[in-house]
Specification:
- This protein is of the alpha+beta class and about 150 residues long.
- It has two domains: about 110 residues, 2-Layer Sandwich (Alpha-Beta Plaits), CATH 3.30.70; about 30 residues.
- It has three helices and six strands, in the order βββαββαβα.
- The strands form two sheets. It has a four-stranded antiparallel beta sheet with strand order 4-5-3-6, with helices on one face. A two-stranded antiparallel ribbon has the order 1-2.
- The longest helix is centred in the C-terminal third of the chain and has 24 residues.
- The chain is elongated and about 75 Å long.
Length: about 150
C-alpha cells in the first residue's frame, strides 16, 4: 500500500515515475558522472520537499519514482532539476562543455512522466457508486434513529 503524506491542509499521495535522458541519449551517465547526478537529484529533490522513493541512473537515461507535494508542479520540478544538475555538471566536469553538448545543454528537452497511484478500476467504481452508498448508509442510520 502506498504511503499517504500530510501537510497543513492536505493529505496526499502523488507519486510519479519520471524518465529522462541526456541530449542525443549519449551514454555519459557512468562512473563519477552517474554518481554525481544521483547525489544531485537526491539533494535537489530534498530541497523541494519531494521524496525520492527509487532512483536508477543508467548510462543513457534516468528512472525516478518520486513523491511530490500537490503544490509543486511536475514541469517546474523537472525544469528546476534539469537546469540545476546541468549547471553543476558543467562546473564540476568542464570537459562536458565541449562537443557534443552544444550550447551548454546537457539534458534532452523532454521527459516521460506517469502517475503511480491507486487502482484505476477501484477509483472509477468508487466515484460511480459513491452517492448510492451514501444514501444507503443514511437510510440505515435513519432506521436506527441516528438522525
Amino acid at each position: 500500500m502506498a504511503k499517504w503524506r500530510k501537510q497543513a491542509h492536505v493529505v496526499y499521495q502523488s507519486d510519479y515515475h519520471i524518465v529522462w535522458c541526456p541530449k542525443y541519449r549519449y551514454r555519459i551517465l557512468k562512473g563519477d558522472v552517474g554518481k554525481f547526478v544521483e547525489r544531485a537529484i537526491r539533494l535537489l529533490y530534498e530541497w523541494k520537499k519531494a521524496e525520492v522513493m527509487e532512483l536508477n541512473v543508467q548510462e543513457d537515461h534516468v528512472h525516478l519514482v518520486v513523491s511530490v507535494p500537490p503544490k509543486v508542479s511536475i514541469s517546474e520540478l523537472m525544469g528546476f532539476l534539469k537546469g540545476k544538475t546541468a549547471i553543476k555538471l558543467f562546473k564540476s566536469y568542464p570537459s562536458l562543455k565541449r562537443k557534443p553538448y552544444w550550447g551548454s545543454h546537457f539534458w534532452s528537452r523532454g521527459y516521460c512522466v506517469s502517475t503511480n497511484g491507486l487502482d484505476e478500476e477501484k477509483i472509477m467504481r468508487y466515484v460511480k457508486y459513491q452517492e448510492k452508498r451514501e444514501k444507503q448508509e443514511e437510510n440505515e442510520q435513519k432506521e436506527f434513529g441516528l438522525f
